Amino acid sequence: MLKKLAVVAALILAFTAMPVWAEEISGKIQKVDPNERTIVLEDGTQLWLLEGVSTDALQEGATVKASYEERDGKKVVTEIQVSQ
Question: Does domain 21-83 have CATH number 2.40.50.320?
Answer without folding.
Answer: yes
